[in-house]
Amino acid sequence: MIKKGILLFLSILSFINISAQDLQIRGRVLDAQNKEALSFVTVAVIGSTQSTYTDDDGNFNLKVPSPQSKIRISYVGYESQDLQSNTLTSPAEILLISENLIEEVVVKRPKLKYSNKNNPAVELIRQVIAHRDENRLTGQQYVEYEQYEKISMGISNLSEKFKNRKAFKDYQFLFQKDDSVQTGDKYILPAFIEEKVSKVYYRNDPKKNKQYILAERRAEFDPRFVDNDGLGSYFSNLYQHIDIYDNNIALLTNQFLSPIANSAPTFYRYYITDTIKTSTPWLVELSFFPRSNDFLFQGKLYVTLDGQYAVQSTQMKVNEDINLNFVRDLSIELAFEKDNKNKYYLTKSGLGIDFSLTQKGSGIRGSRMVYYTDYINGKVQPDSVYAGEAIVKVPEPTTINDKEGYWASLRHEPLSKSEQIIYSNIDTLQTIPSFRRFMDISSLVLSGYKQAGPVEIGPINTFYSYNPVEGLRLRVGGRTTESFSTKFYSEAYMAYGFVDKKWKYFLSGTYSLNNKSVYKFPQHYIRASVQRDTKIPGQNLDFVQEDNFLLSFKRGENESYLYNDIYRLEYKAEFENRFTISAGLSKWRQQPAGVLRYQLTQEDGTPHFLSELNTSEVSIGLRYAPHEEFYQGKLYRTPIFNKYPIFTLNYTAGIKGFMEGDYNYHNFTAGAFKRFYLSQFGFADINVEGSYILGENIPFPLLTVHRANQTYAYQLNSYNLMNFLEFVSDHHVALNMQYYMNGFILNKIPLLKRLQLREVFSFKAIYGGLRDENNPSLNNNVFAWQKNLDGEVSSFTFGREPYMEASVGLSNIFKFLRVDLVKRLNYLDNPNVSEWGVRARFRFDF
User: Which domain of life is it from (predicted)?
Assistant: First the structure.
């Protein structure tokens, strides 16, 4: 209790920023010559284990045991300073003098072509690479440590004029003076913080990394407007763990080649720029630069000269000339120390990113700081410690009366002044009416729903649409929210077509089985629904979004539609390991509309038309997406892709005679998706899928109608030059490849590289067919091939070769637009075929 009381007392003193003699020292470390801030400077209490590092702006916070304590400020390449804590006034400004400071030196040398041959810097980096595996964490057998990580973000580079705008009259408490700016009054607006304390255990054989989350905390917005879990996952993905010993370092949506990767000497230039003999062991300062405008770093490595050739610290930033969107600055700093086995381990990792639309305007500054303590190498733990999921949340104590004091005792470094107030500021924001109105409007724009008490009205992009069967179509709908019920959710809409003069509707009720919103992971619910609406065969869009306004504009003939009456009962269960199981029971009546016809040929050769098709189906689906993360929106999930594959397996059975079902069939489908990261060469998304349908005399609406695209938007999962209902099969395999080169070629072309365009390539192929018993050309017991308005047959199955199309495009146009030139490679004799097409897609990338 005494210890907690002291920690609480220190936390309060820190918050109100009292003077340094009260056991809390705040300060800033600068270069004595140019007054530039020094980051990763060690500030330690002499004779104690208490220490900290300066942040990206040179700031530090240090708790000292007494006013008489001495502190030491030390940094590689600078003279150390020992200071008495009671002589410092908080915040203190400490100037470090470079050990290599010389009045003026002019060195001239002949311009020599850089070469790896006989280059001592390259020989040194090859030694670092050769010793890489023995120095990294995965080179040890057993390791355990405590980890504290903090992600914080805020709006940066705000002017006094901006701060004093009338619109911000009620929000002055949010703005903080930006101490990192040397000249002029600039402000930051802290907006997000997340903290996490974990105990981590690593075992090499069999390999397992187990993280026990002991405590976590973040500033949260109203869950009606923001998916806080998804937001946290998104920021964590932006500010990832940095391992200098990995060949490739994942940052944002790209991969950067590490300066100590196996192939690094091919892509980097290295120079020995200093030898530091004041450190034990001696260090070599190794500066490195990219050879080209690829996704590479530039900076300094400090390598130990003790035979281990380990990285003692590094400061890196991205190549300023690369094609990286919205990033004004990105810096990485890592520090290592020796453990109990004389191996080097990571003690602090810092990643800072400054996002902005312009170089000089306001932006978003964020950082991820991770501290590692209590590092033990070689301690064997029971197998039970490593069992189960890789990440486990340990329940926090329920008897915490002083949350701030509790967190003060957990942190490896106190929060900065601007970070301390984020939690209270976010809570205060939720109570300001103007801010709630702003969030309401933002939610309407971004998600398409308008809050109306316990319900939401929307989505607005479906209120108006057009198609040739319904003509002008108006729709209105909505859904309930958690304020209505945390267990029961309902969704409904009504729509009317002014040409067919028919009403359409949808009504569903969902009951959550785990006391969570059905829009939060892990989902576990049962849902019943009824729907009457139109649909294009083969266009399996989300269940209630087929009338999006943007889909109203289509090329070519678009006259084949269905009226659908669907009664469905669904069950879905998601598990923490990202395995999902779903099941369903449905009754489905389909009626042809437009030029679509259900035509059978009788024995005398005359046609016979059916007015409807009835089926009853049961289905089960399995999905496994290891380590999947996403942002949960109102209508869909936005995936945060990683290196792991995603697998799907589905089975659907039609049952004849059950609930008026007319057919027996068994439909098996399977698919796999994986993103392949290719370092500075970009990345590729590969999707493979296939299906097989068992059954005889099955009409085409129950087979696989392959997904075509007749809009002018580039659709990733559709065939963009295939016509609606053009290809039908009862068995098929398909390949979809999207390759994003991230400007690897265009960045090397003078003048053109200023546009920061990026290359993108795609190839899609699908091959399948119809067995004789389901082929209208060979069996009169199934529906005849469909015809277009001109009476030509417009539906087919595949011949001797797969359908193929490819595209080459430019992305990052105005930083958000992708435009593809698409070519259809075969089946060019089919009616109304376009061999070439230009398609566009909105795509935001870093």
Answer: Bacteria
